[in-house]
Design goal:
272 residues, alpha/beta, Rossmann fold, 10 helices, binds S-adenosylmethionine, O-methyltransferase activity, methyltransferase
């Protein structure tokens, strides 16, 4: 790739296509080294054991869960926008949903199904196996009244959601669909005008980023043979994210900022 991150050149699709995996990774290298132990925020007890239980079930795929530091950031943002309802696309075994629900509860939001027919955190995930693990993690955390998981392709289930608006929408499922999720949420009015999008992995370059994360797999763990397409196309994902980034950069409806946290976290809000 001709250009580097330092001179802030935005690579073209052709440049991304020509780049080696090492160049992609170097280009998108982000600050993955923030140590939660140095953070002034604390990891809530509701996430205790979630990573260990996840790793015991899915092995190294457990690295797909958001990091604690990012979860603490999400909790902070939930407070900042005074969120009452959150939409999450891509739940896996529930780490990010637990951070969201913990923050809602701390902010005084009550659990249970409300007049919209939903609990405060509505999660969409395609995998019944992951959803089952997530639900048991929600029970362990005492947050089952706060979080529901709707299983199926989020592209279809998003289209079915109606008569509800959210204060935060978190995108963390298949990256190639981010633009579709973003546009559908806006077009259907699913995000309040003062709401916040949080979009994960926007500077992602390789799934090995997940797999490089050390996870606490117990020696006697026998991970499930979970049917999940971990072998998805890295380049297709990278290019789709690049196109998403360019799309939102030029979208007059919103303003965006990408935080150089882990594999990139983009925050977007509506411009009046
Ligand atoms: C990176 S993981 C989410 C991690 C999660 N937010 C956490 O903190 O643990 C991505 C998830 O997206 C789900 N997924 C992938 N494609 C999907 C689709 N088309 N619709 C719904 N979920 C999808 C996968 O099953 C997986 O659980």
């Amino acid at each position: 790739m001709a250009s580097s991150y330092r001179n802030l050149h935005t690579p073209t699709r052709e440049e991304l296509n020509d780049a080696s995996p090492e160049q992609l990774r170097a280009y998108y290298a982000t600050n993955a080294s923030i140590n939660p132990n140095l953070s002034v925020a604390s990891i809530p007890p509701t996430v205790n054991g979630v990573r260990e239980r996840t790793a015991a079930k899915v092995g190294r795929m457990a690295g797909m869960a958001i990091a604690d530091y990012q979860g603490m950031l999400h909790g902070f943002l939930v407070g900042l926008v005074n969120a009452k309802r959150i939409l999450e696309i891509g739940t896996f075994t529930g780490t990010s949903a637990i951070y969201f629900a913990t923050a809602l509860k701390r902010n005084g939001v009550k659990g249970g199904v409300d007049e919209t027919g939903h609990k405060p955190v509505v999660c969409l995930d395609i995998s019944e196996e992951f959803a089952e693990i997530a639900r048991s993690n929600f029970r362990e955390a005492g947050l089952e009244d706060y979080i529901e998981v709707i299983v199926g392709d989020a592209r279809e289930n998003l289209a079915k959601l109606s008569n509800i608006t959210f204060d935060v929408a978190f995108l963390d499922a298949d990256k190639v669909s981010y633009k579709y999720y973003y546009d559908t949420i806006i077009d259907k009015g699913l995000l309040n005008k003062s709401g916040l999008f949080i979009v994960d992995n926007t500077a992602f370059s390789s799934v090995t980023t997940y797999l490089d994360v050390p996870v606490p797999v117990a020696a006697d763990a026998k991970p499930l043979d979970v049917k999940f397409d971990i072998d998805f196309n890295h380049r297709e994902t990278t290019v789709a994210l690049h196109e998403f980034n360019e799309y939102v950069r030029h979208d007059p409806r919103t303003e965006a900022v990408m935080l150089p946290l882990y594999t990139g976290v983009t925050l977007l809000r509506f411009i009046n």
